Amino acid sequence: MEDNKQLDPQYKPQEVEKKWYPLWRDNGYFSCDVNPEGEPFCIVMPPPNVTGQLHMGHALDNTLQDVLTRWRRMQGCRAFWLPGTDHAGIATQAKVEEALAQEGISKDELGREAFVDKCWEWKHKYHERIVRQLSMLGSSCDWEHERFTMDEGCSEAVRETFVELYNKGLIYRGSYIVNWCSHCQTTISDIEVEHTNHAGHLWHLKYPYSDGSGYVVVATTRPETMLGDTAVAVHPDDARYTGKIGKTVLLPIVGKEIPIIADEYCDMEFGTGAVKITPAHDPNDFEIGLRHGLEQVTVIGKDGRMNENAGKYAGMELLECRKEIVEEFRSLGLLEDISDLEHAVGECYRCGTAVEPLVSPQWFVRMQPLAGPAIDVVTSGETQFVPARFTKIYTGWMENIRDWCISRQLWWGHRIPVWYCQDCGEVICRKDDPSVCPKCGGQRLEQDPDVLDTWFSSALWPFSTLGWPQRMQLLKDFYPTSVLVTGYDIIFFWAARMIFSAMEQMGQKPFSHVLIHGLVRDEQGRKMSKSLGNGIDPIEIIDQVGADSLRFTLITGNSPGNDMRFQQERLEAARNFTNKLWNASRFALMNLHDYQPDQYPLQLTLADQWILTRLKAATANANANLEKFELGEALRGLYDFAWDEFCDWYVELAKLRLYKGNPAERHTAQTVLVTALRGILEALHPFIPYITEELWQHLPHQGETIMLAKYPDGSGVEAYPEQERRMELLMEVIRAIRNLRAEMKVPMGKKAAVVICAGAEQQQLIADHQSYILSLAQSDGVSYAAPGSEPPAQSAKAHVRGVDIYLPLAGLIDVDKELARLQKEIDACEADMQRLHAKLSNQQFIAKAPPQVVDKERAKQHELAAKKASLQEYLQMFR
């Protein structure tokens, strides 16, 4: 035990936290080799992007992982929390390009190889910041096994997977409509598109029949795309177009004929039932075009401007072209109508640019064959979502999944392992770089310029980080992993892809449980964002109040699957709790200077038996909640026990023997104080690791660190249920006396006599522990009477569990003054009641006043009646 003088009067979290993290790390306590014989428990950290710094979502995510890891480690498991970072293709490339632009350099001037070198420099710089921030949070991950999505091993896993899927026909290249971001200059997948509602218009355009017999009206939110129309579609059952299917219309402005086709996609209830079809610029139109063999005319380029196929509009920005097209339709007499419409616009999740659907040759993963096993492993319960409601969301998405576009037009990332022979056109897909064409022997080979979607490498994370495709010992020991902790916003980005990748590559689940948490929002419930300026930097919070207070706030505010609000009062409550623990521990240590374990036989009092029983229940309950992933409930239960029962009750009761007890009584109080406090610290350690380690080190303990102490689960602690019940009666009596004193406004310093009317057994219990009442209820004497006895004059009364408690008020307060005050309040109530009665009896008022005003007056009437009854009851105490 350290010298208790080292415990400062005030808790200084920054000093404590700077002290302990390096000691934990340097001594190897985070290693997966701790508890080598224990049951394996493994979490792979969702890798933060190397583009920036931790935000509050990272803080929550990693705190939850750390709690689970520390808890399992203390249970004796071989706990392995594997850290890592993500190369974040689009985001990192954008950051590096921005930094180069400030120096007046473009990536094209640098060239691909030099630009990639710049990206690696960026990674090395910002990786260290991420590691430092995770360390400040208290993350007990095994840094010796840290991974990066583009390290040598992960890169080998990516190539292995790509080539295997390619050889199975599960990866293919084809021209398909994709989501194109003109700002990031790359494709993005469907789930990387965020849809935001915008106020817009619906333009109703007339397309004349080629034979001059009239026109068909089509409606569109994007008139500029009509330059690429190749058909008009109607539903085959739409009677309005009987005889029209197969005819042609003359495409205005362009002047070419396009057919009217029949397709069941068309909604007969929407507008005229006729839809313009632009296969090159709309996903649904693309599919219709494939079914009907329509031409794909691209009129918008990758730069987000109209291209050469747009004729005289070439080079225009889209909105400029839209305006010109609408004006031309108006001048031709072909603009039927313009109506207001709020509609969803797809935007790039990275930069917010409106996404343009474009037909482009890309690489895809064929998803249907992979989706089945990924659905089965979840519906069978092998992998369980927590909360379970996310199972339905996951399976619904997987059942309707489209092929995954995995190619990105970037330089930073895993380059696609495909080469094209410039001599014979052979396509070569290999794990290693080829030097000659296997078909013609030619050496003029060019690698595909695209890189893989960042999520392709992330999808392999649970097994690539453990050494796959090499069959390393870590993979044998820790795969499948135990828990994935992630936000609901990336279930489809990441969790789903890890599951189907694992089922394909490993033939088994990647993890047993998926613990889903929500977003951390601001106090008003808004999502934190740069535009709102409401983001909160977790590192600033740590600098202000310490990592433990931040962790406490995040955990107690969290329930699985739900968003939480980050509220300042919660943070204050967390800091107050750490201070409470510190002060309680200082009190204990100041009374342990002469403590020698086993010096005397223990003489447990009722309070001792009660606190040990409650300790057993509190720690057992914490374990049960942790097993259910109810981390917030586990911590709230421990908080209530530590603050309400240990600090507010037991510590106060222990003072009686610590200050005035004989040596044996003092020794018993010291022993139970140490046992309970040490149990509290050990139970709280996974949640608030720094302060618990500091305080535990000052207490009598075994072992080097609280990190490796056995997590208390209630075993080995004897329970005293009958004594617990008896103690609870005493506590209720004390609370009742305290409440009476507060209600009667008895000054704090005045001690009061108490009269107890109860049965013989209850009287005996209270009499045997009268010292508790004298100490905790500010009483200077307790007298007893049989049930039904005449109550003392001018006494306040309370009743708990068959016990009547009287507080004689004479001498405590000025009774005459109190009587006058009460009567004055009663008179005021009666006057107000008479006024309201007259008002509510006035039929003119009832007829003319708004109903809510009448209801409000009636509610006041009821409130006054209740107040008067309460005052009169209070008055009777003095009779």
How would you characterize the overall build of this protein?
By secondary structure, this protein is α/β, with parallel strands linked by helices. The chain is 45% helix and 17% strand. It contains 27 helices and 29 strands. Strands 6-5-14-16 form a four-stranded antiparallel sheet. It has a four-stranded mixed sheet with strand order 10-11-9-12, with helices on one face. Helix 9 (368-379) packs antiparallel against helix 10 (389-399). The longest helix is centred in the C-terminal third of the chain and has 30 residues, at 631-660. The radius of gyration is 37 Å and the shape is globular.
Q: How would you summarize the topology of this molecule?
A:
Elements: H1 13-26, E1 40-44, H2 56-74, E2 78-82, E3 84-85, H3 89-102, H4 107-110, H5 112-137, E4 147-148, H6 152-167, E5 171-181, E6 186-188, E7 193-208, E8 215-220, E9 231-234, E10 248-250, E11 257-262, E12 275-277, H7 283-292, H8 318-331, E13 335-348, E14 356-365, H9 368-379, E15 384-386, H10 389-399, E16 404-405, E17 407-408, E18 418-421, E19 427-429, E20 445-447, E21 451-452, H11 454-458, H12 461-464, H13 473-478, E22 481-487, H14 491-505, E23 511-517, E24 520-521, H15 538-545, H16 547-556, E25 564-565, H17 568-590, H18 606-627, H19 631-660, H20 663-684, H21 689-698, H22 721-743, E26 752-757, H23 760-768, H24 770-776, E27 779-785, E28 795-800, E29 803-808, H25 815-841, H26 843-848, H27 851-876
Helix pairs in contact: 1-21, 9-10, 9-14, 15-16, 16-17, 17-19, 18-19, 18-20, 18-22, 19-20, 19-24, 20-21, 25-27
